[in-house]
Amino acid sequence: MTDIYAQDINMCIWKRELSAELLTDIEQYLQGKPNLSITKIIKSDAINQELNEILKDFPNLAALRDNIAELIDMFSCLFDLKQVGFRLNVLEHAMCPRFHVDKIPCRLITTYSGNGTQWLSHDRVNRDKLGFKSQGLGDEQSGFYLNADDIQIVTTGHVALLKGELWQGNEEAGLVHRSPPASSDEKRLVMTLDFV
Fold first, then answer.
1. What topology does CATH give the domain 2-195?
2. Mind telling me which InterPro entries this protein's record contains (predicted)?
3. Rounded CA gap, 124 and 122, in Å?
4. What is the pLDDT of residues 92-110, one digit of tens each?
């Protein structure tokens, strides 16, 4: 994941397999049709204590808590952060349905269940039509990208680091991404970590 520091790298993906225990915990939890939306700042020197407090109402998610703690520790160490912005959400709709870039230095994102984040490589987009520059047209109609086959997907379970526009020297070059289209029969469990 240290490749994210390279000037010509805008995204790093850790291709990992989630454990059977973790997948079982998540599946059982999601069957209860939970409404989960946690946003918190976590101190990097108190990760386990803070996660135990945040997730105290979810005793059956010990494997998830341990996995989250590992990722927060990794993110904090990689960027020498004293605290991290943490979000954990169960989503029934696309949180960010339009392609966009983040106005932050870097974000870690992982999808524990459901479809993963969609993204486009820098050379496959027309940034002159990104966001409000699309003149109200949808991503598919605006000419922002030419071919749906160019859309790539972060596989469920994989961990992605996405450079944003506030990464030094990355102005106007943040990784273009969006939430996948919503599915009526599938909930997503998504975690993000941000600089604060």
1. Jelly Rolls (2.60.120)
2. DUF1826 (IPR014955)
3. 6
4. 876 777 889 999 999 999 9
